[in-house]
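quick one before i forget lol
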Amino acid sequence: MEKGIVVDREAKYIGVYLPSQDKVYTGIPRKKVLKKTKIYAGDFVLGEVLDNENFAIENVEERKNLLKRPSVANVDNAIIVQAFKMPPFDSLLLDNLLVVYEYLGVEPVIVFNKVDLLDENEKKDLEKVIKIYKDAGYEVHKVSALNDEGIENLKKYLKDSISIVAGQSGVGKSSIVSKLTGKQLETKEVSRKTERGRHTTTGVRLYKFGDNSFIADTPGFSKIDALMFMDKREVPKYFREFLRYSCKFPDCMHTVEPDCEVKEAVKNKEISCSRYKNYLKIIEADLGLLSGICD
């Protein structure tokens, strides 16, 4: 049997890419497969070529993960795209996304797009933000999909992996995917009145770039709440910089507990106040806790 990857999943259509043929076939699942599982983009499938158009799916390999929004299996990286302006940078959205993808076992990669729009002062402000996230332990890239800045470095980083793109509408997700893959995806300009984009993506499709790299373009969104995925007591485990410290209590929430090394690290500017503030917002804690810590 040949092995392929599901690269297109919309309604009843299943598109299967076979590396041996360098071609996408229409996947036709056998009844025994349909009884066992639903098939998602990113699934690795085994089967046989029936003719020039069709591929019989005999089996679906076990998944390492399955994301529900978007519905993609076996995801290695989540590329979280932000703009510093147009639309304005949303650190709370970014921190919620980082927590969620850490929880789901997907490596987050932060990408700031539209750097060509920034003046010198804005570039300096962006560098301060980038330092916060690099110091926390995240991979961060600056790109301009308009003039190709940083695209090659991002492409090299994503080699040999399945990646998804996340972030609010209007930040240029589809433009980045277009630059990475060489395929022109539909995009909508950001409204200058609202500074928000409009959704342009339906279904789930993985686009191939390089020999063994795939990326999904996904619908945009403006809000996500980490507490929809986990209990608030789990959130501290997914702030990477918090894990460097050992508090007196193993289940410390870094709020009112005594001998909290994380709060002490915030006081000493070892942990960013902006990250700690967003953490308190995510767990719905009293922001009055910032007094005396982030003064």
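fyi The longest helix spans residues 120-136.
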